[in-house]
Fold this sequence. Notes:
- The chain is an alpha+beta fold.
- The chain has two domains: 3-61 and 199-237, no CATH class; 67-195, Pseudouridine synthase, CATH 3.30.2350.
- The chain has helices spanning 15-26, 56-60, 96-104, 127-132, 173-184, 209-226, 231-237; strands at 3-9, 31-33, 42-49, 64-72, 74-76, 85-88, 108-112, 121-122, 125-126, 142-155, 160-167, 188-198, 201-202.
- Strands 1, 2, 3, 4, 7, 10, 11, 12 and 13 form a nine-stranded mixed sheet that branches. A two-stranded antiparallel sheet has the order 5-6. Strands 8-9 form a two-stranded antiparallel ribbon.
- The radius of gyration is 19 Å and the shape is globular.
Amino acid sequence: MDGLLLFDKPEACTSNQALQYLKKLFGAQKAGHTGTLDPLATGILPICFGKTTKVAHRLLGSDKTYQVTVALGIRTATGDREGAVIQKQNVPVLNDERIESVLEQFRGDIEQIPPMFSALKVKGQRLYQLARKGIVIPRLPRMVRIYELQCISKEQQDNTLDLIVRCGKGTYIRALVDDIGEALGCGAHVKALRRTRVGDFKVEHSYTIATLEQVKAREGFLGLRKVLHLPEEIMVTI
Length: 238
């Protein structure tokens, strides 16, 4: 079983759980994903099977696009809605000009401090493992690139913003949102997150669990092979 699956990851599922489920569904011995999505996040998660894993690193380095709903006025320990509240502030009236002036600060090459609740390893330990023990350690800032950052809607009554973010490798959307909240003077966290694009691959061309199970029930493993992008197709795309 060789090829690339464009999987639409559901919420409340880790990237590794999705990978293990798909390995079993496809009867694959070798598989890997190309960039972790948080359990809260949904959207496109490319899965490489068999020989295709050899080009997975190319997708890891591709730019990615997200749609994120930002909840203003509350900071959390994890930077998203699943974390404990660590700060509450009043949300000022935000006009389009104020929002744009803040977003402009985060376009281009910026420094970003990786969040404690992340899979980044420090001295052999994942940061989130330390964070769950209440341990916070200094993290060095890293340069990341934000190609596009736009506010597509705002709800003053609900204190939320909807943003489109297109970014380079290694960008933490939760850290970006936390920094934007600080710059707006009220704090913020990620309420919802959906990855809509990885490189040239779009989420509208990806497959859900329900669709894949229907394909297998109707056509078996032969049908599942048909949904995969062949290794030679991937080389052209990336």
